[in-house]
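Report of the visiting student (M.T.), summer placement. My assignment was to run the structure pipeline on a short list of targets and document each run. The first record concerns Oxidoreductase.
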Amino acid sequence: MTDPDEVSPDHDGWRPSRRRVLQLGVAATIAGGGALAAIATGGPPSRPAPSTTAPASGPTLAPVAPVAAGVISKRIPGTDIYLPAVGLGTFQTFDAIPEQARAVRDDVLRRFWSAGGRVVDTSPLYGLAEENIARSAVADGFQNDLFVTNKVWATGDHLGDDSHAAKSLNDSMQRLTRSAPMDVMQCHALVNVDMIVPVLHAWKAEGRIHRLGVTHHDPAYFGPMATWIQTGDLDFVQTRYSIAERSAEQRILPLAADNGVAVTVNMPLEKGRLHQFVGDRPLPDFAAEVGISTWSQYFLKWVISHPAVTVALPATSNPDHLSDNMAACRGPLPDAAMRTRMLDHLLAMPGFDRLTTQPWYPGKQYPGVMNRDLAAIRERSTWRSTRWV
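After the run finished, the structure tokens were exported:
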């Protein structure tokens, strides 16, 4: 007998059942083997892949800018849309106060576009990042051609109040100077996720966004993230994944593959810590076999060669580093044997297993509005902790 509380979600009016609401946030028990086999064989997802078609009452999907010849691309599951496998993150790096190095950020985004980059990830929480993206994109006329993955971090005045979330979306659209609906809107760091995912489904049904997802950078939250991949009828999930932090391989990546969910990757370079670790060490000779000439390409090709990964999102404020990152999106990709060889080479280096315990952004400072305001709070607070952002 069908339980009336267990109503399957659909894209035109998704509603979580009472039982599902109680289950959300509880880590799922993941079966081994089957998901990994699906990744390895490229088999179909175990449920219908997420729809990318807006309802008849809303606008149709805007065409995605074509991928340039020779650029490695990945398909959004369940669609015929391909995205360049290396995108651009903007946390910290694009939070530049107007008087600070605006021209440098303009050059980063211009080079990104010229190199075939299309996917830009941002958030209202990233200070002035949205405005700085827009300034350069508008100047060169491609603000509506970027594939923007954005986020919402909001609660409300009361349970069921979505006005704060709606204002966040509207403000983001204005800051990005964007007329096309947001390509992907995500619940940032699972904040208020029980409320935000239903709101995202409503926005999708209304044609205000094209796709929806959830994000987190901390493996401690992979349990609830896994549950949302299984139950939230998501199109995208953004997770942390790097050659130094591989926890996503255990459940997030297999589940995304099984459920037809696209994966974007934050922290693929571990916020500068991978480069600090290798320092001036030479690349292993075998790296040339897959067209790798720098450590950035080594780290990024390792990430995007995982079959479940759609786009890696390295962030940089250095135009030359941007060009180096984008070079990882060309040439051959490592196969499974080469990926193992690449990882083993680093694991053999003393201290590699402790890399993720080091502070973010070694040797770098980003004096934007986020760090300015966080510093002011630290100055006022009597609490001293390592848990500051």
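The two ends are 49 Å apart (CA to CA). The beta strands are 73-75, 82-84, 119-121, 147-152, 182-187, 209-215, 236-240, 262-266, 311-312. I thank the supervising group for their guidance throughout the placement.
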